[in-house]
Write a structure and sequence with these properties.
Oligomer: single chain
Largest sheet: none
Number of strands: 0
Distance between the termini: 23 Å
Strand content: under 5%
Radius of gyration: 13 Å
Structural class: mainly alpha
Helix content: 40-55%
Number of helices: 3
Order of helices and strands: HHH
């Protein structure tokens, strides 16, 4: 997935990043998203730290707003 715009400012996301942006709709907490991903993908570790890191970077890029 990528955002429209000029090439130097264009942002691209892999499918995992695109999914996280889609889930960041304000209706789900980071904990709910982490639990969903852990169960859906049979992850051994809790992905909450990685999700928070992603959202911090995505917020800085203007992809999501964390409130």
């Amino acid at each position: 997935a990528s955002l429209p715009g000029d090439a130097p400012r264009r942002r691209e996301l892999n499918s995992s990043g695109a999914l996280l942006v889609e889930l960041a709709d304000g209706q789900h907490s980071v904990r709910e998203i982490a639990t969903y991903l852990k169960n859906a993908h049979s992850l051994d570790d809790d992905p909450v730290r990685e999700i928070l890191d992603f959202y911090e970077n995505a917020s800085a890029a203007g992809l999501v707003t964390i409130g």
